[in-house]
Protein: EMB1873 protein
Amino acid sequence: MEVTGEAPAVHGYSMPAEWEPHSQTWMGWPERPDNWRDNALHAQLVFTKVATAISKFEPVTVCASSAQWENARSQLPEHVRVLEMSMNDSWFRDIGPTFVVRKNGSNHGNLEQHIAGIDWNFNGWGGVDDGCYQDWSLDLLVARKIIGMEKLPRFPHFMILEGGSIHVDGDGTCLTTEECLLNKNRNPNLTKEQIEDQLKAYLGVQKVIWLPYGLYGDDDTNGHIDNMCCFVRPGVVLLSWTDDEKDPQFKRSMEALSILSNTRDANGRRLEIIKLHVPGPLYMTDEEAAGVVQDCNAKPRLPGTRLAASYVNFYIANGGIITPQFGDQKWDDEAVRVLSQAFPNHEVRNTSVQFINIYKLHMQDM
Structure:
């Protein structure tokens, strides 16, 4: 069912926090050789490891193209569902739907379903001139397909927005960055106030906290919040951090710290800030760059490029934390320690995701 003319909040829906119960996790399967080196061989091994780790806590569905379905099926555990779906790339957190839920007892609107999906507009993270690749026509259909398979109400939205650019506490507060949402390559005809109004109406939040920038080097997404800062629970956030004052990330982290320290959430709480040190810095090697097909259909992957490596881009499953590891032993171990303390009731599992940000889409089951 397509719902037009009315926002989800009108029907009592709101976006839940990532730590609330899921019925399953949706993932895409990587393959494009102009983004993933060596025909995505290494990425597929990592995606398999991530899907397997998540499946210890909840069901997982992986979507693969017709050309890759058999390959994905052969690599993934049998209990992980593999569906055929066309896509331009595998970033499901960004191109998939934002699931919203209606709390028990809510009787707003005239929709009976407990879960619905928001189908945002998408332009390849910046359009023809600034985006990651030239053709995103298949990505535009992913959210609609998933919502249709789940037989949920669909709220289409004209605004260009990726799921990784927003993060909520499930209690009325949303985190985002000006670097991304106010970028001229997203919604140049909308003001900050207008974008904020849309976030409130569609996510069911009352307060939007704007950080100036995302993680240094996260040029592909123009500074998504999911690499920079996230909620641990209402009133508590994790912030990407570095102690190195010469690192360009230091200024970004300091500016974010200042804003977060002087901001209250939707319920008037002062925020507790937990610092999560970034690894590295890490850079793309000559070997890694040589493994990518540089064919002008996607953004060039050049040797020496600083990689947007962050432990904040972990995933919360039902009772589990899936955290990346980057081969920087000191900060890899520190990340596991910090996350274990931040989530004492979750099992923290590392995935040795070196130099790859894995974006997931989760479906909530309240």
The longest strand covers residues 22-28.
